[in-house]
Amino acid sequence: MNSPHHKRILIFLLTSVGLIVLPHSVNIPPALFGFFSLLLGWRFTCIWQPQYLPTKRVLFFLTILAFALLLSQHRHLLGRDAGTNLFILALGLKLLEIKTERDIYLVTYLAFIVAASLFLYQQSLFMAAYILAVCCVLFATLVAINSLQIHTRAALKTATVIVMQAIPLTVIIFILFPRVEAPRWMLFEEKNKAKIGLSDSMEPGSISDLGTSEELVFRVKFTGALPPPKLRYWRGPVLSHTDGKRWTQVRFKESVDNPSYAGTAYSYTLLMEAQEKDWVFGLDFPAKFSEPLVQNGYYQLINLENPHKRAEYQITSYSQYNTGNLTQSEYQTNVQLPREPSDKIKQLVTQLHGFDSKPDALIQQILNHFRQEDFHYTLTPPLMEDNPIDSFLFSTKRGFCSHYASAFVYLMRVAHIPARVVTGYQGGEFNRVGNFLEIRQANAHAWAEVWLENQGWVRVDPTAAIAPERIEQQLNLDQLELGGDIRFDAGNAKQLNWLKQTRQLWENADYQWQRWVVNYDSNNQSDFLSQFGIHDFKTMMQWLMTLVGLMTVILSGFLLYQKKKATDPVLRLYQQFCQKLQAAGLTRSNREGAVDFAQRATTALPEHAEIIEEITAAFIQLRYGRVTTREDFGKFAKLVAGFRVNNPHGYRLP
Amino acid sequence: MALLIVILLLIAFVYNNNLAYLLTFLIASVFFITILHTFKSMAGLVVQAGQTKAVFAGEAAGFDIHIDNPNAVERPHLQIKLTKPHSFTLNPHSKTTQTLYSPTQKRGWHNAGTVTVFSTYPFGLFYAWSPLRFNTNALVYPKPSTLELPFPETPSADAELGMKHKGADDFYGLQEYQAGDSIKHIHWKAFAKGQGVFSKQYSGNGTAAEVWLHYDYAAGHDTEERLSQLCRWVIDAERADIRYGLVLPNLKLMPDRGSAHYRQCLEALALL
């Protein structure tokens, strides 16, 4: 295993293995990645310094070490993380023990498994393209083993061509291969790292850290018209209980009332990114949805399946709704205050006619108060440690949505009007390329709901009063700097610069990728296939077999056609010569040999006898001769090119 | 290979991961398509049997096989096998000749047997092969006897000549070892010194000598042993530059010398 040929194969192999494991550097513990890199580096050195290859004893020791390392990190060998690490270590150890061709195959196979494990961590379009490229290198390694003399580029080209040819077949199998959900016991529970997201409580200030995060939360594609920006409220947890600082959810035991709906119905597909919580943010107010979604007592959608995966939901929401009456306990919950409000607040509520006017009049009063007094919208409000509501209302007067929503609800409750805080997302950026809305962490929002007689719960957004642009337009994150001025993007098509367009194009590709490839589950599959009249498992398998067969026939035809197209250049030139003679009325029959034909031609065209014989002799020499050189061919080509038949009838054709 | 696909499918299934499925199907499709490429790596080749070389029994007979690639595609790794596989590369529109060897045991016509042209290109996962039975034979001469017997005194030979011949085992020089030389004639001392393999040459008494190599006078229990002895004599006589005639039960070759005669005699011995 030490010829230059083998060296090249090893370089190929080690490079592709390195490329496969590289993206895992963020997924596996640094100790293990370090250990693997050490093994890889060691093997690389041994290409040129084979005397440093480990002996059996050293290898045994390394294996023990690897297992110890693995167990110290995971304590078991099952599950995604431990399994991936196991395969990576096995790959690293096997690298040091490449003795025969069989070992190279084993390493290649292990590398493919590690490549598949990468998809358990990341499923982006970029990752898929990367893996595809690395797979080409791995296949090229196999090509190199099976070729006597092959250049790196030629091997890569062969491998890439084969991979490209395999893609249509892959797509067919991918679409038609039956998807069955794995049984529950096979799912290894993973403790996931905490992800940023809305929390189930709110302390004005707690949302500030997500204020500028561009992390994508979900995407929405509407089947019909888009709701106007001021209706784009994505409902999340409802916070009804407060201790004066924190707002928290209250467990709601009673069943959902059946609200009545009116106004425009919006149907859409919602594609949630992997989440820590099981919340699904439906457009306010979600009315129709299917499993695995349920609605809790706060009309918030809850996902009953594992939220750590991307998932797609079909939801219909209505712009108008009436949630009906409140029960006594609901009323109590929603006017709850931790203690007697301060005199200052009571005074303010009195001043706003909170105790002697109708609830909707009070709403307007409070919103006007925010508007007229010196309130400001900022993402970096001053800290409000004790009595945040009082400090906000009377001294700092600066804050963002949480501050306004909590203060508003507090004031309503002081006036004994049921009110609560709703958190979720608001707005979303419209992707023109893919026609969908993208909702990011930066869109996190908090607003209020007030219960009104005969109307039920009504949404009121106090932030809209102070910063209407925040609601009407998209916060321009690119230009946003903390503490600086907040500018708003008008969302005008003319302002789309190329950077943004590229980003949208990419986002769209990624969205389509997520939607059609990553999320292609048994439901999607049956929906998609039923369009083509494929309804049951049996027809699916029949189609799979038929199309794979058809594809094979097409491919073999393609490969064999290529072969036919390319004929011997000598023969091609000879055919040119025959065509020239044909123009003079001499047609060579299929059974006629070159010599016989030449004889006939010389008899018919005695004036060309010499050249015909010369060409024929050259042809025979080139085609059947023992030794032929490039010069012979050149001479032959020149002869054929120079050959002209004078028209035997004595006149020139135009 | 199948195991790899199963493991990948299992990973994709357990984690319900579509991209893992996609990768699995891609690898499976690539492997599947490889069958076509392996087939293509051999399709269209023209294989013809060429010349053969006559050998003495016990040696390996060589068969020339011409492989012509009439197409514009390269054949990066073809293999051909009679007893042992050979690898070679064929450029577009080119041909090559591979000599394959097959061990022989018996004199007479030795059939080439089945020549297998095969390929595992591009990934070594599939094996495309074509067993070819050429009706091509190599002539196998009898194995020269190792016994050192003097040329027979034949009735037709002149008594004087016979006498001369008896005492003619004089060493006259060394010659490079040739197939068929008796092991006893090898100059072992020279061989041990690493100077190469030489045969000691013994000579009769000049070019005028003439012997009749008669089947009936050859020592041996059966035909094969006798032919083996005759073969030895033919070789020795040709080397000693003696004119020799051959008398077989069905054939008589008049005394002569030279490679054509030599070959004729050996052929007669081989085909008796």
Notable features of this structure?
heterodimer, A: 654 residues, alpha+beta, 4 domains, 6-stranded antiparallel sheet, 5-stranded antiparallel sheet, 48% helix, elongated, disordered C terminus, B: 272 residues, Immunoglobulin-like, 3 domains, 4-stranded antiparallel sheet, 3-stranded antiparallel sheet, 6 helices, 15 strands
Total number of β-strand segments of chain A? 21
Query: Structural class, judged by helices and strands of chain B?
Result: alpha+beta
CA distance, first residue to last residue of chain A: 69 Å
Structural class of chain A: alpha+beta
Strands in their spatial order, largest beta sheet of chain B: 5-4-8-9
Largest sheet strand order of chain A: 9-12-6-2-17-16
Distance between termini of chain B?
55 Å
Percent of sequence in beta strands of chain B: 25-35%
Write the layout of secondary structure elements.
The complex is a heterodimer of chains A (654) and B (272).
Chain A: H1 4-21, H2 30-48, H3 56-74, H4 80-95, H5 101-118, H6 125-145, H7 152-176, E1 201-202, E2 216-222, E3 233-239, E4 241-242, E5 247-248, E6 260-272, E7 279-280, E8 282-283, E9 286-289, E10 293-295, E11 301-303, E12 311-322, H8 328-334, H9 343-351, H10 359-372, E13 376-377, H11 388-396, E14 398-399, H12 401-414, E15 419-426, E16 429-431, E17 436-440, E18 444-452, E19 456-460, H13 462-466, H14 468-472, E20 474-475, E21 488-489, H15 498-518, H16 522-530, H17 537-565, H18 569-583, H19 594-604, H20 609-624, H21 630-642
Helix pairs in contact in A: 1-2, 1-5, 1-6, 2-4, 3-4, 4-5, 5-6, 6-7, 7-17, 18-21, 19-20, 20-21
Chain B: H1 2-14, H2 18-40, E1 46-53, E2 55-56, E3 60-69, E4 75-81, E5 85-90, E6 94-103, E7 108-111, E8 114-119, E9 128-133, E10 137-141, H3 159-166, E11 170-176, H4 188-192, E12 198-203, E13 210-214, H5 223-239, E14 243-248, E15 251-256, H6 259-271
Helix pairs in contact in B: 1-2, 5-6
